Amino acid sequence: MEKRVLYKSIMILAVVGICAYSAFPLNKKINLGLDLQGGMHLLLKVDTKGLSADAKADACDRALEVIRNRIDAFGVREPHIVKQGIDEIVVQLPGVTDRQRAIDLIGKTALLEFKLVSNDLEKLKQAIEGNIPEGFELARALDDNEPLLLEKNAILTGDAISNASVRFDQSSFNEPVVSLEFNPEGAKKFAEITVGNVGRRLAIVLDGKIQTAPRIKEAIPSGQAVITGRFTPDQAQDTALVLRVGALPAPMHIEEERTIGPLLGQDSINKGVKASIIGGIIVIFFMAFYYLLAGLVADIALLLNFLIILGGLGMLPALFPGVSATLTLPGIAGIALSLGMAVDANVLINERIREEINAGKALRTAIANGYSRAFTAILDSNLTTLIASLFLFWFGTGPIRGFAVTLTIGLLASMFTAVVVTRTIMEIFLSFGWLKSLPMQNWIRQTKIDFVGKRKICYVLSLVIIISGMVAFFNKGKNAYGIDFSGGQLHEYSFKNAVAIDKVRGCLSEAGFSDASIQQFKEDPKVVLIRTSSDKSDIITDKLKEKFPDEDIQILRIEKVGPVAGRYLKGKAVNALIWALVGILIYVFIRFKHFNFAIAGVIALLHDVLIALGLLAITGRPIDLLSVTAFLAIAGYSINDTIVIYDRVRENMRLSRKLSLSELINLSVNQTLGRTILTSLSTLFVVTAILLYGGEVLGNFAFALIAGFISGVYSTIFIASPLVLAWTKKK
Predict the structure, then answer these.
(1) Could you tell me if 63 and 46 are in contact, meaning their C-beta atoms sit under 8 angstroms apart?
(2) CATH number of 112-247
(3) Over the stretch 244-282, which tens digit does the pLDDT of each residue have?
(4) Which of 194, 198, 623, 673 is exposed most, by the fewest CB atoms within 10 A?
C-alpha cells in the first residue's frame, strides 16, 4: 500500500473515532429541541412604559435575573434564558408540562404591598357609586369579593421581606398559607404600623389584587405575617417562591409561546426516526443495486457522513463555549438535505468514472480521472450551499438557525466522505489487487434531447403554474400563513377516541369561540387542532374536559404568537432568504466569471421556491417557519443541481470550441441527465418517506420539499440553462 493511502486511512480512522466519541452516548452529548422532547418556549416583552428613564435602562437585565432565580428554584433541568434585543427575554424550559403554572410563575410581577383599609363607610359608599376620594382606590378581596377602600400609597412593600414559606393552617381545615418573615428594618416598621393602627384592617396586596385583609387586633412585634387566599398547595408554593426571589421591575407580556406536550414530542421522534430509517434503507439498497461495488462504497460514505454530523453536533459545546448541541425538526431537515447532497456527490463521481471507462481508460486511470473531474462540480455546489447556510445562520431565527447548523456540518462531512473516504477505499482495493473491474447498472443511456428548443413552452408553463399559485396565495390573505407569521393561538389536543367535529365546534361556541377554526386529521381522527385569535387556552382546555369527561384529553401543543412577534419572525425569515440568495449570486458570478450564469441560477432557484409556495397555498397548507425551512432546503438543492450543469457547460466550452452555446448547453444537460434523475430519485425516496410516515408535524414540510425538488430538476434543465443562452452571445 502506498504511504499516501496509508496516511489517508489513518486520518479517516482518527476522524471516525473522534466523531464516534463526540456523538455517543447520544442522550448525553446531543440535546433534543423542545419540538422533539416537549417543553415550553416563551418570548417575553418587558413593559417599561411606566418606568423612569433611569429605571428603564436596566429593567430587562434585572427582570432576566429575577426570572432565572425563579426558574432555578422551580427546578427546571437545563433551562435556556437569554436577553433578546432591548426589552425581550427568551425562556426555554425543556420537559415542563404544567403550562399554566409555569406561565404564572414566570410572568407574575410579585409586587407585594401592604395598604391600610379606610374605616369611613361614607367614603366607601361614594367610591362604590363611582366617586373615589383623592388618595384612595377601590378594590375587592379575592376571598369573599368584598369591596374595600384602600389608601393608595403602600405603607410597606415586598422589599421588607427576608423569607416566604408555605405552612398549613390547622384552624382552617389544614389550608395552605404563605408565611412571611420581615428583615430587621421591615420587622421594626411592621411593628410600628400595627401599634399605630390597632382596630383597622390591613390589606395584603399582590400584583394589585387583595389576597387578604385581616383586622389588626394588637401590635405584632414578631416580624412575621401570613397571607391567606384559598391557595392550592402549588399556588401557595409558587407565591412563596416569587416573593422569596423578589419582584419583577416591570410587568411582562408573552409575545410568543410554543408549548409542546411530551406525547407530541415523542410522537415526532418516533415518526421522524421511522421515516428516516425507511428512506435511508431505500437509498442504501438503491445505491448498492444500481452501482454495485461502487454503490456499497458510497453507502459506507453515507453512514460515515451521518456519524460525522452527530459527532459535529456533539463537539459544538467544546468548539464554541456557550453553544449547546441541540437537534430540532428543522435540524433534521438540514441533515436530510446534506445527505441528499452526499448522495449527489457519489453519483457524480460514479457517473464520471463510468464515462472514463466507456472512453477506454484503464480502471486505475478511470477512477483517478473520475474523482478529479467530478471534484470541481462537487466543490462549487457544496460551497454555494454553504455560503447560503452561513447567511441563514447569521440572519435567521431559532428554527432557521437549527437548520443552518446541521446543514453546514453535513456539507463539510459530505465533501470529506465523498471525495476523501470513498477514494481512499477505492485506492485500497486497487493496491491489494481486489478491484479488477467496476461494473454498474446503466438504465439511462446517453440522450440527444433538444432541451433548449423547448424552452419557450416551458417558460409559459412555469408562468402559468407560478401565477396560479400566487393568485391562490394572495387571495387567502392572512389565512395563507400559519400563526408563526399571522399571529393567534393554536391548540392541539389528543382524545381517547375519535370525536365528532360538530360536537367540538358546539362546545367551543358555548365558550364564546364560535369563530374558532377546527381541524381533524384523517390519518389520526383522535387529534383535533383548534386555532383562535385570542389567548384563551385555559378556558378552551377546561371547557373541552368538562364537555368530554371520559376522553382523557391531553394537550399535544399550544402555540401563541403575538402580532409584533409575527412581524418579527416574518421579517427575519425574509431577510434570511434574501441574504442567502445574495450570497449565492455573488459566489456564482465570481466562480463562473459571468453575471448571466449567476442571474439565471438565482431565477431558477426563485422559480422553485415560488412553485412550492404556490402549491402550499393551492392545497390549503399554511406557510409557517417549517415551510420557510423547506424553502431554504429547496434553494440549496436547486442551486446544487444548477451548478452541476454549469460546471459541465464550462468544461465543454474548453473541449468543444466549435459548438454554439445552444449546442453546448444541450450536450451538457444530456450528459448530466442520468446524474440529475438518479440524485433526485434518491432524495425523493427520503422525502416521500417523511411525507408518508413522518406525521402531521412534518407533513407540510415534506410536501413542500417534494414540490420544490421536482421543480428543481425541471428548472435546472428547462429554465436556468436556457436563460443563460437567452442572455449570452458566444464570443
Answers:
(1) yes
(2) 3.30.1360.200
(3) 888 888 888 888 888 887 777 677 777 777 777 888 888
(4) 198
